[in-house]
Design a protein that fits this description.
With 152 residues, this protein is mostly beta strands. Helices cover 12% and strands 47% of the residues. The protein contains one helix and ten strands; from the N terminus they run αββββββββββ. Strands 1, 2, 3, 4, 5, 6, 7, 8, 9 and 10 form a ten-stranded mixed sheet that branches. The N terminus is likely disordered.
Length: 152
């Protein structure tokens, strides 16, 4: 009887683990997280730039469609192509890839600041995506000359 109970426990455990396996779950949706976020302390009282990396470990692409923050009247997405910067309505987050916002490249523009972010503070933002749920991020404010080790 003891062997039967042990065998039943092993079979039940195996069935549970099979249900938790990597099956198609991670291949059919985006799995988003944010790394390397920062805002250099702005020199302007009305605008600031923000940088971060959206990491997608999932098998489906997504799109960052908007960003909001109580700190600014608006937060816009900017894409840098060559030497020109332009506002865009969305940016792709590739499957098994990254969307990088970095100095000299894609970036967030915080416009109509309600208060000027100061080094040592954090700014809360909400990233909204076409397919995935929103992601809230606490972005630290760094010195105006901050240069991250990650290169972003």
């Amino acid at each position: 009887m003891r062997h039967l109970a042990a065998s039943a426990a092993v079979i039940t455990g195996a069935l549970l683990l099979t249900g938790c396996g990597g099956g198609s779950g991670s291949d059919d949706k985006a799995e988003l997280s944010v790394e390397s976020a920062y805002i250099p302390q702005p020199v302007s009282d009305t605008m600031a730039a923000g940088f971060l990396t959206v990491v997608n470990k999932g098998g489906a692409k997504d799109e960052l469609t908007s960003v909001t923050s109580a700190t600014a009247g608006s937060v816009t997405l900017h894409e840098t192509v060559g030497s020109s910067m332009e506002e865009v309505t969305s940016l792709d987050v590739p499957a098994h890839g990254q969307l990088v916002f970095k100095s000299g490249g894609n970036h967030l523009m915080f416009e109509k600041l309600k208060s000027k972010p100061v080094q040592g503070e954090t700014v809360t933002v909400e990233l909204r995506f076409a397919e995935s749920g929103p992601v809230e991020v606490e972005i630290p404010v760094k010195s105006a000359t901050y240069n991250p080790k990650t290169g972003h």
